[in-house]
Write a structure and sequence with these properties.
mainly alpha, two-stranded antiparallel sheet, 12 helices
């Protein structure tokens, strides 16, 4: 009888252990699923807002995650949304490391090969390795339009529509920027301190220099902006611009052939003297 009871207790303990292991496995699976949602949603938001660094993406996550959910751009758990809103800039950079490497190694590399550009990286602490650019010439011009030559009325019309419409809204309402607060030379290096990243819209609203009516108008514009839809619209217009450029380049190649001046045939129409061997 004692052996029977001991065996029964052992069976109960084994069942409990198996049940605990199963529960732990399910909990771990759910945790992995949530972490996967966090990473996937983070990458999605990062792409929507034009791939900013962790310091600039952090204030975006705090505000725009819930708005994107309201616009129906993605469906995530409240717990996932909370993790994204509370994520530090260092964690953001760490989780996006694979995304950035893939961009540099694939998209940028193919572009450099196609345009016959040398693909290099600057050395750490060697800022002069990078090409000098003036203020926003990279973020607002070259990063958007590239280095192609747009010089036709059709191309100008597309660019004007882009900068006066979607791109203006995207940059002013949805792209946080960091302003230099101070800089201090420490030995041979300069230590720079920046303020908290904010969009031009947020800085204007906090400035106290606009009327209440203007504030309401700007707030109405902002609340009606779907960041993901705006990014899709910008990409679509850039595709139209590039196709227009390609058509122009094809037509210019044809015109070059047509502009070739044919050799004159007048001299061949004049009676030429007979040519013969001496007798």
């Amino acid at each position: 009888m004692l052996q029977y009871r001991a065996g029964k207790e052992i069976c109960h303990q084994e069942d409990a252990a198996r049940g605990g292991s199963k529960a732990a496995a399910e909990e771990e699976k759910e945790t992995d699923l949530r972490d996967g949602q966090v990473k996937a949603t983070l990458a999605r938001v990062w792409e929507i807002f034009d791939c900013p660094c962790g310091q600039r993406l952090k204030p975006i996550l705090e505000v725009e995650v819930d708005r994107l959910r309201e616009f129906g751009e993605f469906t995530i758990l409240d717990e996932v949304a909370l993790k994204l809103r509370q994520m530090s800039s260092a964690t953001i950079d760490r989780k996006l490391k694979h995304q950035r490497e893939e961009f540099i190694n694939d998209i940028l590399y193919k572009y450099c090969c196609r345009e016959k550009l040398e693909f290099t990286r600057s050395r750490p602490s060697r800022k002069n390795d990078n090409a000098y650019i003036e203020q926003k010439n990279w973020t607002h011009v070259r990063k958007i339009l590239g280095y192609l030559r747009y010089d036709t009325p059709a191309e100008l019309s597309i660019i004007n529509d882009l900068y006066r419409g979607d791109l203006r809204l995207y940059k002013n309402f949805l792209q946080p920027v960091m302003k230099l607060v101070s800089k201090e030379r420490v030995g041979g290096s300069v230590k720079r301190k920046y303020d908290i990243p904010e969009t031009p819209y947020q800085r204007l609203m906090d400035s106290g220099q606009i009327s209440g009516e203007t504030r309401k108008q700007l707030e109405t514009v902002y609340l009606n902006l779907n960041p993901a839809q705006l990014k899709r619209s910008i990409d679509a217009k850039l595709n139209v611009l590039y196709r227009t450029y390609e058509e122009k380049r094809k037509s210019e190649q044809i015109d070059l052939m047509r502009r070739v001046v044919p050799h004159t045939v007048t001299s061949f129409m004049i009676q030429q003297p007979e040519v013969a061997l001496p007798t």
